[in-house]
Amino acid sequence: MDVKENYLAFLNHEETQWIPSMFEDVYMCGNDHETFENGPAGGGVDGFGVKWIATHSAAGQGVPVAHPIVLEDVTAWEDFVVFPDLDAVNWEEYARTELAGIEKRDRVLEYHSWNSQFLRVTHLMGFENALCAFYEEPEACAALMSAITDYKIRLIERVHDYFRPDSFVHYDDVATERGLFVSPETYRTLIKPQHKRMNEAAAAYGMIPQIHMCGYCQDIIPDLIEEGSAAWQSAQPTNDICAILEQYADRIGVTGGYDTQGRPGAPDATIAEITAEVDRCMEQYGKYGKSYCFLGFLLGQTGDAEIEEKMYALISRASEKRGKHGGM
After folding, report:
1. Closest CA to 164 of 203, 206, 199, 200
2. Is the whole-model pTM more than 0.85?
3. What is the pLDDT of residue 301?
4. Helices (H), the chain
5. Conformation bin of residue 256: beta by default, left when phi > 0, alpha when psi is -120 to 50
6. b/e 37-47 (16+ beta carbons within 10 angstroms → b)
7. Right CATH number for 3-28+76-321 from 3.40.640.10, 3.10.129.10, 3.20.20.210, 3.40.30.10?
């Protein structure tokens, strides 16, 4: 296998010849470059009218401001919620910039789109209001999320036309480190159908669907599988990753494992702590032979020389340990 074939084997739940690594095997595009989803770099208003500010602790990534919020009453969403004008995006220039220097044949190309249905409702309403709305006005929330899905499917169409990625990854962090923000029943009733519809749209265009979901969400892993997610990205060890791999390795891939929330992810983590955590991931999760892909990172500001040095140590150690002849 070459690098791309090995990573695609992971996504298809087949035996891999070495442990895939997001750092070495994947080209990522989208992410925070979707300014219509996340606002401009450094902060600003996105295509929904939500204002974002940049963070220091999360490498400059944006978070929505607490006030003002776009939507006070979810039952009135049709009067207040606007959607980004995707036709106003210069897709040719966007794709040309993102794909510059990328040779799609030597790695897997993934398009990453942030702010799926649950997260977008929280961005529009604020977290507290959104969580209350899920319980108090489930029908209105379902209607709003269905409209968000319609918009996301229009986005998927354009991603296919201009990027032609191997995989489409959507982000919907529905959990904290301790548990889901909503009950599993609420997830299955309101959120799961929208994830499924979006995954089906991506698959129809030949893109392998994946989901990025942080936090303790192992209770809904079977639901992620039923939604059509080929892999679950940024799995954190607050979940029992070994048990998940043992039970579901032939149905969903697991990307992550690195303890970013603990000492190994802290900005002042030592090189020894970082390399020990990489070794733990490779030995503990890599032994399953398929459906595990390494990913890890440190919290801290992009451009910080010390953080970049430690990230290089992290990536280099993963390259040494993942079992591919020759490493990076």
Report:
1. 206
2. yes
3. 67
4. 3-11, 22-25, 35-38, 77-80, 91-99, 117-125, 127-136, 138-163, 184-186, 192-204, 221-227, 241-248, 271-284, 305-321
5. left
6. bbbeeebeebb
7. 3.20.20.210
Q: What is the Cα–Cα distance from 271 to 309, expressed in whole angstroms?
A: 9
Average pLDDT over residues 213-226: 97
Q: Where are the domains of the chain?
A: 3-28+76-321
Q: What local confidence, expressed as pLDDT, does residue 328 receive?
A: 40
Q: Which residue has the tokens 């959607």?
A: 83
pLDDT in tens, 28-64: 999 999 999 999 988 899 999 999 998 776 666 788 9
- At 166, the amino acid letter reads D
Tokens 């209607």 map to which residue? 143
pLDDT in tens, 68-98: 999 999 999 999 999 999 999 999 999 999 9
